Each structure stands twice: as structure tokens, then as C-alpha cells.
Amino acid sequence: MNVSYLFLAPGFEEMEAIAVVDVLRRGGVDVRTVSVGGGKEVTSAHQVTLRADLSLEQIRPEEAECLIFPGGMPGAQNLSECEKLMTILQHHYDQGRMVAAICAAPALVLSHLKTNRKLRVTCYPGFEKYVPDFEVVADGVAVDGNVITGKGPGFAIQFGVTLLEQLRSSGKAKEVAAGMLL
Hints:
With 182 residues, the protein is α/β, with parallel strands linked by helices.
């Protein structure tokens, strides 16, 4: 378990993808972007095209320490409609490994999780209706065990720093945050 995957589907929110990858890589996390839906080039909600490091078919889920899902529409919906990815997510969660989602993704993607308890999450306002079985809080970033969620684009850097803290240490997170003048 030495790699984290951040999934990109057409219509993803750029800030929630790029800021998180940037923060984690500054902190020494091996995070790789993964295209979902064919080809390595993925176009965001605001027409920014990125070239992912890998396609979904190339990942090795058993090596992942964290699965990360940016929001954006229709990006989060597109992620949630990928059956192979939802199977990988459930298996990863069942093994007690870290799962992170921001914006619409906590509602649209994490709602597919079968859990034995009520998860405490945050999500983009208006998406609460998709997770009636979760406890939705108003926090910018919420941590509930191995599940980390963020509210939206304005919290992308804080979300990334919180992920770094959970994946590495509070010291490393503080060091990266200081270097970014946070």
C-alpha cells in the first residue's frame, strides 16, 4: 500500500483534483490520477483537459492506501455510474483503507458504500438528499475514521492538507501548509 489514486471522470471539478494532487505530492505521497471512462485525456466541468497518469484498467487496487474522488458535475455522477470503480471502492472500504471524497462525490459516490454504521460526512450544499443514511455536517472538511470528506472547491486545499495529515503525519501536513503560506 504505497500509492493513492485520484479518479477523474468527464466533468470533474478542476480545483478539487489539482489542488489535492499538488498538496499530496508536496507532502511526498505517491498519488496518481486515474481516468474513468476511456482514454487518458479527461475534460473537466470548466473545459480544462488533463492527461491522467493511468486509466482505470491500469490501476492495482490492492496497492492503494487511499482512493480519492473529486466532485464537479457531471464528474461525480460519472464516477458513481462506473460499476467497476464502485466495486473497487467497496472492497477498499471493507478492508479499512482510506477513502476521500469532496463536493458532490461524498453524496453521489460514497452513497454506494454498504456500511454497518452511519457515516459522518460533509458535501456540497443541496446534495444532502442523496445520503439520507449519513450524518451530514456543515464542516468544510470532515474526518470519520478512514473516510475523509470535503464540502466543495473552496475547501480543496484544506481537504488536501487533511488527507496529508491522515496519510502521513500532522507534522508533514503543517510543513506543507506553511510552505504554501496557509
